[in-house]
Amino acid sequence: MIINHPLLGPRDSSEFTYLGDASLIDRPDWQAENAAEAFYEYGYLRDNPAGKHQELWFHEAGDRSWLVVTRDTTTHEISKVELARDLARARGRSK
Amino acid sequence: MTQNNRLSGGQIDRNTTVNFRFDNRSYTAHPGDTLASALLANDVRLVGRSFKYHRPRGLLTAGSEEPNGIVELRTGNRQEPNTRATTIEMFEGLEAQSQNRWPSLKFDALGVNDLFSNFLSAGFYYKTFMWPAAFWEKVYEPIIRRAAGLGSLSMEADPDEYDKGFRHCDLLIIGAGPSGLMAALTAGRAGADVILADEDFQFGGRLNSETLSVGDQSASDWAAQAVAELSTMPNVRLMARTTVIGAFDHGIYGAVERTGDHLPTLPAGKPRQILWRIYTKKALLCAGATERPIAFENNDRPGIMMASALRTYANRFAVTASQRVAIFTNNDDGHRTAADLHAKGVHICAVIDVREDAPVNYDYEVLSGAQVVNTKGRLGLTFVEVALPDGSTRTLECGALGVSGGWNPNVHLTCHQRGRPVWNEDLAAFVPGSNLPVGLTVAGAANGVMSTQGALQSGMDGAVEAMELSGKLPDLPEAEDAPASQKPFWYVEGCKRAWLDQQNDVTVKDVKLSYQEGFRSVEHLKRYTTLGMATDQGKTSNISALAIMAEVAGKSIPETGTTIFRPPYTPVPISTFAGRMKGQEFHPTRLTPSHYWAKERGAVFVEVGNWLRAQWFPLPGETHWRESVDREARQTRASVGVCDCTTLGKIDVQGTDAAAFLNRVYANGFAKLAVGKTRYGLMLREDGMAMDDGTAARLAEDHFVVTTTTANAVSVYRHMEFVRQCLFPDMDVQLISTTESWAQYAVAGPNSRKLLQKIVDPDFDISNDAFPFMACGNITVCGGLRARLFRISFSGELAFEIAVPSRYGDALMRRLMTEGEEFDVVPYGTEALGVMRIEKGHAAGNELNGTTTALNLGLGKMVSKKKDSIGSILSEREALVEPDVLRMVGIKPVSSEEKITAGGHLMNSAGPVDAAHDQGYVTSAAYSPILNSSIGLGFLKDGANRMGEKMRLVSPLTDLTVEVEIVSAHFVDPEGERLRA
Question: Is B932 exposed, middle or buried, given 0-12, 13-18 or 19+ CB atoms closer than 10 A?
Fold first, then answer.
């Protein structure tokens, strides 16, 4: 596969390490009342879509950016590649 | 031997004669031959034995689809089983052996299987070797394996080199027949960056096999001229002997180039094969079509071949399989073979055409509406029995029979992304469907365009469409343009043993039987009968079997389904996939800064991940590793030892939020760590399990150096980047891995300070007061060399770790050894390191094994509840904090003669020994030269409250039971007085 890195252009997927569902960005609030439940869901429950899937790839043999790749799991078509950091900020993560 | 079956013409070099051997007999051939054509030229029709019944078999085809002519090529450590004689390019000195026969090809003892064929039908193995289950491994498998093997391995390492390479292009054209050549000319002249690949050593495809003309030239001359023009184009790369084996994601293709298989000896440094990864913008599949057989009684005798193969052998290689040839066909193409052979002077006994309206010919007899119903000839065809439309039969004497059942487009690569081919009624064949791999289009016969003119046109159109060309296009030469239409005819009614898959011995009857026994999906049919599962992957049999299945089911072929093809298109040697990654080159080897020094000292090395680390340093006279290791540990504890710990991961953490960041990744607190201090840190995974441990040293307000274990250096760095970029993107913190940048040595033992004081520059006071336990700082050594010093201890002794830029690592080690002579300094390896950390009760990889929590490790209090850190919430899960969870303990034998074994389990001193009564297990064990006893670390239920308890350590696998005592994990200096000295 070829991943079109937002900073570096098209790179072979063998330069990357796969982590999984991009929902891992949405780490729950540790002080929330239901924190235990929320962390359990965060850690163990994932959607497993046949189709578009947002997932985390690490450019380990490259610039060490974490990327969020939107990939169709049935065709491997990649429709979007973003810096995970940008997406995390957009989802309200900060410090 | 003379080449009795040579004809006139052909594209071989008759001016040169080469010698080759087959089954230890010598023959001659010409450059341009394949092993197959050379064997036929020398009247060798019998080339192998079939897989199951050991039936005598000859060549069926002239291409890579060959099911029968598979041989062992070359000798000694270069011997390669299962190579297809039809694709082996002739060279001087070629040696090949037939396979799957004993003692000889002409008399094969297992040919007796053929007599029992009634018992060996579809699913034989499943039915016979079913029970008792105890027989599966010890009785049945050896029997099946001995009888079954196809070819044999030399059992020696392959001495040749294989390589991998990467190429890029605008347009990859797969196959260099009429459509591929025309596409390459079109795209090449337009300036596109083109790769044209073909599995054959000669470009042209079927053009080299036909007597047709293209324009005013012969087909093969036109092909040669096209190749000549293409080879002058700098933007076109011609890759002959290159099989495109797979279509992968995003326009990436795999290809195997046989760079050395056709050479008598490989020049030094030249790889035998290269595995290419070709990145394409577009690809055009011009893979042509494969002729399919008609099944009839005893259709597998040597001499019975595809009609198109006979034509290839005659026209391209100037060879006939026999001087007397008959043709069995259901289409006009079969008649072409008869005409071409007749023109070369071969006697055509008859053309047997199943159609009532077969075309008439006045040069030889055509039997319309006739069918071949049986054949004779034990080791080679002698007679063909033909049923005529009036009900009578005729026997023809012939040495070869060409069979043509029509053509199947080579759709294989169109299926590699799960595309399914579709049935075309006019062609009675599968053609590529609509869901092709992205960027791939198909032209020529592979797309069902069967005429030469059509192939040229569709090749040009394909290139124009793929490259979006406009403007002037090449003029297409005139060529044969017969309409393509095929009426299916799969097998002759009433036959008993009519072979479909000749390599795996699957008959028409087997397919029907499989259906009757309930294996009705095509995938089940394949697995039950093994049809299409041999090395040829059923290229000449799959479609026929599917058609017969459809007939038995009373359904149409599209309703019955189709099997799709997976990579590779043809078999690829494992060595080619491995390339240079074998033996020591399997992964890169990382050497520590003190490696060459250690080698000089005669160190024994151990692989730790990619690293080579000194395991121990034997002295002259030491005969057992324990002697060396005991001495190293003892001497370190008595005076001073030095160990290279460069391999531990080092991560530089900088930024105004560096402390806040580490507070999140470590379970324990780091926010208040003073500058100039180091702290042990435990990292958890988000699920609450321990991930890694190490130290973080605060060199400045905004600068930390984190260490990780050797094994987790990469994954911890990845995890920290994840936390930084994905979870806390606004923190002002930067990470960089500096593992290789710093050479780091542990200097341990009561005299370690004295030794270091000899090299640390006088500006820096490292006395206990000025530089206490867990201190750290930037210093200089040896007169100005910048260095980092950490007062940390893994051994439990007074100890330091000193780091200098890597390039000074070797010099520093040598200096420490020289300066340490007065203290009797000893270098120690990973074994002594392990002994001392077990004595001290420090957890390492064996304990941080992914299933243990901070609580298990005795570090439960480190997990801060007052802050947000990775893993702290889930580490509180109920089951992880029950009162009797496993706790890390020390274990020692009651009798010092006995030994603790890692992996053993702890059981109560009395009661049953089984999984239900398991109390814990041992993770690490060593012999302690200080305690003169074997000792171990492990996990025990409620271990913290069971000190002094006597238990049994058992290992049922090795029948081991040892009486042990549970003790504190801190065997040496539990109060930590030494390391604070």
Answer: exposed
